[in-house]
Design a protein that fits this description.
Strand order of the largest sheet of chain A: 1-14-3-12-7-6
Radius of gyration of chain B: 16 Å
Shape of chain B: globular
Order of helices and strands of chain A: EEEEHEEEEHHHEEEEEEHH
Shape of chain A: globular
Number of strands of chain B: 11
Oligomer: heterodimer
Mean pLDDT of chain B: 94
Helix content of chain B: 10-25%
Number of domains of chain A: 1
Largest interface: A-B, 49 and 47 residues
Number of helices of chain B: 3
Low-confidence stretches of chain A: none
Strand content of chain B: 25-35%
Structural class of chain A: alpha+beta
Strand order of the largest sheet of chain B: 1-11-3-9-7-6
Distance between the termini of chain B: 38 Å
Low-confidence stretches of chain B: 1-5
Largest sheet of chain A: 6 strands, antiparallel
Chain lengths: 239, 218
């Protein structure tokens, strides 16, 4: 593996954002098992272009993500491809926790009493990081929850599968566009662990280049290949 | 086909003759209207198998809008039907579905766009009319500086997008029928934006988009 450009461990209940260039890879490691990473992607240049849950699902005929699937934007293009994945199922439909949900489930732990061990919720974390890129409530759309598995029963009932992500689980995203990446490590909204104990996540950004047309992420669905061609055209017209 | 499970059909006692607003929305057109707290909105699938792509906003603060994930999370279920509370991005119930003769409605499938048509079907589909263009016309005409950022993931009334336990997702034949309707009571003052879907590339409109009827009661 090449030397990482960035190497950082986030504790559970923390947040982070960065602009990561096309071809570079963001590698996330669930250090202790059972972590959750809520993540959103935005086109760095036109930030109203963003991760789109329905287009991602419709384009690939799935309701969850795993390698080598892609994260689609709302403009018929690809934002990122999953190039490594040892967890095999990542939730796309449950969104994020709010302050009210966290309070109701875990009670309150404020900064005044707990300093940096205070409880954080995913929505607040998203809004804080989004604001740093000129974005806000209007831009907060359904996110991916990496390392969390949620299944749907025949009648549509949603159930989170506990113990899904093992210690050391890895997921890697290759950016197909220059992306603003906004993420947090707050608990999954359906996590029924009685105590607030979100797990730490190791982040690395690795150098890389855009894929060839026979890349597994593009070959798995003709929709992904067309999305990539749309992305490629978008860059060709600019350069 | 086998009927989908968990249908909770409920008819409404409301009489169309007493509606304060009653409009036909032709296939491919849009409709945008304020619905006051306490008013009831009914959408009728006049000819069957027609997807009505629908968004709601808090009429006093458009940054609060329908949230598909909060709605699914609140009921821990993918499908919308009688009793579903349509939740906002601020965790409040905007409306509640009070009657439904279709059985279940989708909120995973989003709205078609000319750009996503090129990804989903073929590059040469870029000229076909699509819901997100109708949504964009709706929000920009409404004013208040609204635009593309204000299009969250929508509801598809009458659309059938079953998810399998293995995680597969399909666009199936509609389970709706001519005259099927869904009715919801507003809990806050809301603005409703509907794109009567013009999609011709999949069975969501049975390959033949048709009109819907929209009614409001006090």
């Amino acid at each position: 593996m090449p030397d990482p450009l960035l190497d950082l461990t986030l504790k559970g209940g923390a947040m982070w954002s960065a602009l990561i260039g096309r071809g570079k890879r963001l590698r996330l490691t669930d250090v202790a098992g059972g972590a959750n990473v809520g993540l959103l992607l935005y086109n760095a240049r036109e930030r109203h272009e963003r991760y789109n849950m329905p287009d991602t699902l419709k384009g690939q005929h799935v309701f969850y993500l795993r390698a080598p699937y892609c994260l689609h934007s709302d403009m018929g293009r690809l934002l990122a491809s999953m190039t490594a994945d040892t967890a095999g199922w990542h939730d796309t439909v449950c969104g994020h926790s709010t302050a009210a949900m966290v309070r109701e489930k875990y009670g309150e732990r404020t900064f005044q009493e707990a300093r940096n061990e205070c409880y954080r919720d995913a929505r607040t974390c998203f809004l804080i990081e989004l604001a740093k890129w000129g974005l806000g409530k209007r831009d907060l759309v359904p996110n991916v929850n990496f390392f969390s598995k949620v299944v749907a029963g025949e009648a549509g009932a949603l159930t989170r599968v506990p113990g899904h992500s093992m210690p050391g689980s890895v997921v890697e995203l290759r950016m197909e566009m220059d992306c603003v990446v906004v993420l947090n490590t707050c608990p999954h909204p359906l996590d029924d662990t009685p105590s607030y104990a979100p797990g730490p996540v190791h982040l690395q950004v690795l150098p890389g280049t855009p894929p060839a047309l026979d890349d597994p992420s593009l070959a798995i669905r003709p929709e992904n290949l067309r999305g990539f061609q749309n992305t490629d055209l978008y860059f060709d017209l600019q350069s | 086909m086998t009927p989908p499970p968990a249908l909770s059909l409920r008819e409404s006692p409301l009489d169309p003759a007493t509606a304060v607003n009653d409009q036909i929305v032709p296939a491919g057109d849009r409709w945008m209207h304020e619905i006051k707290a306490g008013q009831t909105l009914r959408i009728v699938d006049l000819e069957g198998n027609q997807a009505a792509d629908t968004l709601f906003y808090n009429a006093r603060d458009f940054s609060e809008r329908y949230s598909a994930t909060d709605t699914m999370l609140a009921q821990r279920n993918l499908y919308l039907g009688t009793g579903t509370r349509l939740m906002s991005s601020e965790g409040r119930a905007l409306l509640e579905i009070t009657a439904d003769t279709c059985g279940r409605h989708d909120t995973l499938g989003g709205a078609c766009s000319r750009e996503s048509n090129t990804m989903r079907y073929a590059h040469e589909k870029h000229d076909m009319h699509a819901c997100r263009d109708s949504f964009l016309c709706g929000v920009t005409d409404w004013g208040h500086g609204l635009g593309k950022r204000d299009l969250p993931c929508n509801i598809n009334f009458f659309m059938n997008v079953p998810v399998t336990p293995e995680g597969g997702l399909t666009f199936a034949d509609g389970i709706s029928h001519p005259g099927a309707y869904v009715e919801m009571r507003a809990l806050l003052d809301v603005v409703c934006l509907i794109s009567n879907c013009p999609q011709l590339n999949n069975p969501c409109n049975a390959y033949n988009p048709t009109p819907i009827r929209v009614l409001i009661w006090e």
